[in-house]
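Annex B. Sample input.
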Amino acid sequence: MNDVHAVIELKITPQRDSGFGRIAERISKFEQVEACFLMSGAYDLLVFVKGDSLQDVAQFVAQDLSTLDGVLSTATHFMLETYKTGGVLGKIEDERMEVS
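Annex B, continued. Sample output.
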């Protein structure tokens, strides 16, 4: 079974004494979270998550992330196909010619 990967944009309310740090640390402790970044622009945090299925990720967002105090909104984007990761192109390997 293949894992499902998603990127979630979160808008959050910064806390008076810790800014975005405390809620980012709390979110980062969930086992589904692979990475969490403070961002500039339209949203505050960018969270990379992994789950067993689309429903698993959706349930995590609905029950765990969106219910945290300070989370104003979420936008989930599922990763459908990988073309390059870790600096390595994913599809090129199948198209290479054998060296004899």
